[in-house]
Structures are given as C-alpha cells and as structure tokens.
Amino acid sequence: MPDAPSDPPADDQVLLVADADGVRLLTLNRPQALNAFNQRLWHAVKDALIDASTRDDIGCVVLTGAGRGFTAGQDLSEMADTSAFAAGEEPGYRALMPVLESFPKPLLAAVNGVGVGIGLTILPHCDIVLMAEGARLKAPFVSLGVTTEASASLLLPATIGWQEAAHLLFTEPWVDAAEAQRLGLAWKVVPDEALLDVTLELARRIGAMPVPSLVATKTLMLAARVEAVKAARAREDAEFERLVGSPANQAALEAFFG
Amino acid sequence: MPDAPSDPPADDQVLLVADADGVRLLTLNRPQALNAFNQRLWHAVKDALIDASTRDDIGCVVLTGAGRGFTAGQDLSEMADTSAFAAGEEPGYRALMPVLESFPKPLLAAVNGVGVGIGLTILPHCDIVLMAEGARLKAPFVSLGVTTEASASLLLPATIGWQEAAHLLFTEPWVDAAEAQRLGLAWKVVPDEALLDVTLELARRIGAMPVPSLVATKTLMLAARVEAVKAARAREDAEFERLVGSPANQAALEAFFG
Amino acid sequence: MPDAPSDPPADDQVLLVADADGVRLLTLNRPQALNAFNQRLWHAVKDALIDASTRDDIGCVVLTGAGRGFTAGQDLSEMADTSAFAAGEEPGYRALMPVLESFPKPLLAAVNGVGVGIGLTILPHCDIVLMAEGARLKAPFVSLGVTTEASASLLLPATIGWQEAAHLLFTEPWVDAAEAQRLGLAWKVVPDEALLDVTLELARRIGAMPVPSLVATKTLMLAARVEAVKAARAREDAEFERLVGSPANQAALEAFFG
Q1: Which of C221, C222, C229 is best to mutate for the B interface (most B CBs within 10 A)?
Q2: What is the pLDDT of residue B145?
C-alpha cells in the first residue's frame, strides 16, 4: 500500500496523521494545490479512516487542511484525463466514499479555508462541522458541465433543505462561513486562528466517551440513511461518467486550463 | 389536445406561456377565480411542462399567477361535483402531479398573491420559491372535511419540519410571506412590484447554465424522493376519495356556497 | 390489565387522565421520581393512547408531567435490573412504542420541566411541542454506556438536523427551552405558569376540527415514516441489549447509584 501516510518521505506526505487524547487528526497536506484530491490523497484518507475505525483508543476523528485551503476538490487535471475512468481501475473517490458513508465513529471537520466541490459535498458526511470565519464553500458542478457527487443530490437537500440546495447547485454562489452556518452546512463559526483548538477540544470531549457507545450510536444514525446514500451515489456516478467529456464539460475545462 | 395554451382564443387562455432567454414563464390566468385550478388549467400546466422538458433552449421554468392571486387551489365547484371522481375520467390533478413530480428542469415559483390548497402544496414541488411581501398561504383540508393532497403529508414535514407541518395542517393559519420564509416554504421575500423581475433574473442565470447538467442534477435530486412522493400521493388519493362527500365535507361545502 | 389508570386507588395513579372539550390530557404522575417511566407507567400511557384513538369525541391528546419534571426517562433501577430484559416478558417500553409510532390523532406535549432520555426522545413522536421557559432536556445514552432509543437515531437527525443531533448525542449538553426551540425540538416556549393553558387552548382548537380528517391527515403523515421508524427502533433495541451490562454501562450505573 504505497500511499499509506507513513511510507513516503516526510516532505511527500499528502496526509498528516496525528493521534492524541482519543482523537485522530487528519490534515490534508497538498497546500500548494489547495489540498485538491489526487489519487494518492483519496487513498490516504481512506486508509487512515479504516485504521481509525479499528483502534480502541480513538473515539473521534477530525479532518482539516494544511495552509489556506480546506480542499479545492477533485484534482481537475485528473478529471480532464478521462482515461482514468475508462481504464477500469478503481478511482480513489470510489474507494473513499464507501468508507466515509459507513465510518463508525464521530467525524468532525475543521474547515480552515476554501472548500470547493468535494470540499463542500464531504461536509454532510461529517457529523459536526466547524468553520473558520474566513473560509468559504462552492459547488461548481453544473457550470463545469457535470453534476453532483458524494451523494450530494440526496444529502444536500437533507442537510440544508431542498430550496437552498437547489439554489446552491443551480447558481453556484460562494457560501461564506456565516451563510454556511445559517444553511446548516456548518455547526459553528470560529475565528480562523482558534479553529483547530476549538475543534480539537470538542473532539477530545467526544473521544472521552465510551467508544463502544459512540460506535453504536454513529452506526445507528448511519444505518437509517446508508442505503439511500449509496443508491444516490450510484445514480450520480452514472450521470457523471455520461457527462464527463461532453461538449459543455470540455469547454469548461479548456476555459479553466486556458 | 383542446386545452393546449395556443388553441383557445386569446381572451380564453387559462395559462399564458412566454419563452425568453432560456426561461419559460407560466402564468396561471383565471384571475376572476383567483386562478383556481379547473380541469382545463390542470391540463394546460401539465402540457406546458411536458413541452418545456423537451426544449433544448429552455433551462428553467417560472410559475406565477395573473392578478392578485397565485392560485386559490382546486376549484371547489368541481370538488362539490363528486361525479367527476366517480366517472372514471382522469382528473386534471392526477394528470399534472406525475409530471410535476418528475419535472427534469429547475422550476421556480413567483408567489404573487394568495395561495390556498394546491397553492401551498405545490410549493415543495418547486425548487426555489420567491414570494411577494403581500402574499399569503393556507392549507384548508381538515376543516373542509378532507385531507392533504400533492404528497403534502410527506413533503410538508420534509420542507418545514414535522411540528410546523402539523401546526399548519391541524390549525390552518394564514401564513404570511415573512412566516413562509421562516418556515422554509419560501426561499426569499420580495416587494410585490419587484417579484417577477427578481424571479426572472434568477431564472435567467439558471437557464444560462449547461442544460444537460441542469437536467442531470434536478433528475438526481428527484430520484432520491420520487418513489416516496408517489406512494404518499397514492395514499392521499385513497383517503381523499373516502372523505369527499362525507358529512363533514358536505357541511363545509354547503357553508362555503351558502 | 392491572395497570389501567382507573384500577389503582386514586393516590396511586401513575397517570392522570382527563377528557374535556375534545381533548384528552395525560399527566405523568410519579412526581417523587420526576415521572420516570416504570413498567406501570409505560403500560398506562399505552392504554390511555389506545383508548383515545377509539373515542369519537377526542380529537387531540396532550402529554404533560406532574410536579417539577416532565419525565426523567426510563427508571434507572429497572435498567440496572437486566433480568427484566432477559426474562422474555414484554418491557413496557416495547409495548408503548408501536402505539406511539402509529397514534392516529394529533399528540401535543407540554414539557413542564426536566426531560431526560425518553423525556427528550419522545418529543419527535409528538406533533407539536410546547415547552416551559424553565424546562430543559438531555439525552445521556452514550455516557451511560448504552445508545439511543425510541428511534432517536433516525428521528433526532430528521427533527433537528444531523449535526445538531450528533452534537446532542455525542456531548450530551443540557438543552434549555430557547435552545430547544431553535433546534426544532420545541415549537414554542411558554412562561412556566401559562404552559398548560396555552397548550390546552391549542389542543381544543385542533380537537374542534372534523375528527375523521384529523385522523386521516395524521395517519398519512405517519405512513410516510413509520416503516423507517420501526426499523430504526429494532436496530436500536439490538444494540441496547448488547450494551446493557457492558463494563461502561455497569460503571456508569454504579457511579449513579453510589
């Protein structure tokens, strides 16, 4: 498993993993790319979550980003390379999502900066989202000629209501932290410099609870929606593949890459 | 198809249809009856939606009402005529609803005035609802001795929460625009005179997006709920038919018509 | 049925039942135990609801508590007695829940004081919740080494949103009345001394509506969720039984009883 966080040299770690006080902190660590998800990062997050789910001493996981971004979403250079979909190998996104959809422990997000695409659509998979005052979110699927991912077609209406979800997906506004809280995408807004401390303090309080009861409770919450989430993602994947490479998608990517 | 909007003489059009800039504007046009739905109007809206779904140049549809009402709901004179249900012909309501439940493009409502019955219960089928400051809504099913329609038994709790839905259905308050926005029935409140311009401006921004991606996204959102919506409506239809003509329903209609 | 409310002597009634003006008022009446649910109380509430569902003259039911508590939840002395689960007899909780999940008439709660455990998780089964300014709520399942009950794993996210539900279940804060209203657990906050009057006035307005239409509407609302609610409770029951008597649960109960 060459992508495991401990394997590459330290200056090449796409994901930082730090365990303390019952909490695992995962830091997306491609700051030069605003932590965009490339294949290695998808798999590194997946592996770190699977490992966390088996550890008796970890009761809560926190996800954040290094540098000024949370995550810029799927690496567009890989989206442009449609051969990644055609080749039949499992894309990292498809490896991470089932793990995320069934992750059996409380998962918190500390949204430290810009979150685009999966940087927004991952939030309904997190149990409690804290957001830096200066952070902002955007879901540019329609304008890129594609459509939703990560079961956002189900989870976004469930989280922020149908009308706000429609507005967000059909007009693609930047959502600042205050608006994210008003919508219910974020649970709490925190001054930028305090974000990680506040999130970790909350995570430690959760991590101190009896872990079997945390696991039972989180698993029960997920059980009520997981089949619908998987079905939504399967529908989305089919539409996404159909639209990737379409004229509108090609034009958008060409405009992006110049 | 004698009810198609282009067929009747201009002074007899129950629905006005205007296409421009990627947007189809549908105006319910029975102002003398506060745009109550009679058989012709149900079918005219259905036909205009079906046609809009096939038009590559239309990315968004707006529904509004002519005059001072949005819609007063089902025409009560037809509800009183229970033979319409007994005769076996497809009532217009049952023709429109499946089209609405699966309408594959963004649908906006500009609630210009009073919305009663379906004038309220149609709103959870719209993706974004803008409401004039002076408009107001009401769902008088229980007091009329009948029950919910248009899958409101499912979609009203989903849209405004169980408790607000229960309060609205069991006590039948008038809901003004500010309250409709607070509840989540309306996305935005707009001064009466600006309502249509503001709604059309939003619709044009949506209509300028790649239509295949709009269709894929709206269709994915609907796919997550459409079976539940259809099942709810089937249950409602059965209860409605059972209660139409019941003593409470007859007494209410007699009181209404004097 | 020795637990029926009319059987025990008046000074031993665990549930007070009063019918007037189309409304049945149920008062949990173990004030010395903050109205904790023992076996007799579970069955008494169940019986009173079943009876109310068959009475043509009752259109609405109100649930409240005697004294300074709403309900302290499941009687912990019975939770500690794991033989109650092992013996195979139907625990009162399992007798009440199916009745509550399908109760066909509007059910209001007047939360007069502290609500713990089922005192919180029963609220999403009530249609409209009014709460005294001085009341407060808490869901201590995880810290007791067990997990959710009463389908809270489904209904709490549905009622207050996933993130607030996660925060409430994983950190177990006291929720005061203003916060309960903000979350959507309570529909309205009322001064303590006015709570019952305000609730009964609302209940009488509902009870004056045509009862067959109230029943049809409430039943339609429930039909959209009842299978999911039952499935969630079945999953919870299995987890609860697995965790009762676990080291974390035993330690918590020993700490509680000293």
Answers
A1: C221
A2: 96
